[in-house]
Amino acid sequence: MENASSGTNNGKKPSRLPKRIILVRHGESEGNVDKNIYAITPDHKVQLTEKGKEQSKKAGEMIRGLVCDSRNSGKEKVYFYVSPFLRTRETLKEIGAAFSSSEIIGVREESRVREMDYAKFHNTEKMDEYKKERERYGKFFYRFPGGESAADVYDRVSGFIESLWRDIDMDMISYGANDDINLIIISHGLTIRVLLMRLFRWTAEQVDNLTSPKNAEVRIMELGHEGEYSLALHHDDQTLEKWGLSPEMIANQKLRAYPPKVDLDKRVFSSNYFDHLANIFNLDVKKK
Asked: Are 127 and 146 contacting, i.e. CB atoms less than 8 angstroms apart?
């Protein structure tokens, strides 16, 4: 992950990085149960179901159990970023209820982590046609008529990430010298995949193979041995594979999490990337 290398301060990392960045998809919404709801309700006003509220409550309890265990009593703090959509704000309410007021140091609504804009479609059958067309065209670059593509989401998410590093670097997220901060970002399925892409510098092809988080599913990144964030400290190989990470991507997550081992090559991403280009362009790539 780039940390703050693409942000301000001449590319230097902030002096105090958050201990964890936790991504959470909203709980089950009315739109997840019945897609016809979009014919009468704007996307940003779609609510959680009762099941979605319960899912979100359990996610909050799980997150608090992780970050506020007895060994770190009073030391761990949380700061929330939330999409402005109703279903994400309702998810925040349920998750936030698991924490005491002294544990929450801030909440910010952030429009750049909103859902991808699929445009205003009252005809759900037409939307199904566009989604089939997207599969043929390529999911990352396909733009819904009048809406966005995943590439468009990447652009705004990139702006959010740079603002985040800048806020950390300038101490805009204030917490005590002995506190550990956990950033919790409550967002949407595709946006979370694109956030991970931006943070880990994955390719469009790699993101196309990822699965979206389930409702109220949590994906946890924690600082590893060299100050790089990794999914491997909280999620095992089987889980990462289920999410669509390739063996090379999983190996890279382990390198970020743990001291390097002889059998793990730090060049695995660069070499495989050039192998991939060689296959596409029929190039003769020489390995050193």
From this structure: no
Structure tokens at 23: 């991504």
pLDDT tens per residue, range 148-157: 999 999 999 9
Report yes or no on 285 lying in a domain: no
Neighbours of 237 (CB within 10 A): 14
Q: Which residues are annotated as a binding site?
A: 25-32, 87, 115-118, 126
Q: For 244-271, how does the pLDDT look when each residue is reduced to its tens digit (9 = 90+)?
A: 999 999 999 999 999 776 454 444 555 5
Q: CATH no. for residue 93? A: 3.40.50.1240
Judge whether 46 lies within some domain: yes
Per the structure, the count of domains in the chain is 1
Q: Look up the domain containing 214 and give its range.
A: 20-224
The answer to whether residue 2 scores a pLDDT higher than 50 is no
- 182-186, 231-235, 276-280: least confidently modelled range: 276-280
Binding residues for substrate: 25-32, 87, 115-118, 126
Can you tell me the distance from the alpha carbon of 57 to that of 72, in angstroms, rounded to the nearest whole number? 22
> Is residue 38, in this structure, part of any structural domain at all?
yes
Alpha-carbon distances of 272 from 47, 211, 263, rounded to whole Å: 43, 22, 16
Which residues are catalytically annotated?
Answer: 26, 115
Query: Is residue 30 in some structural domain?
Result: yes
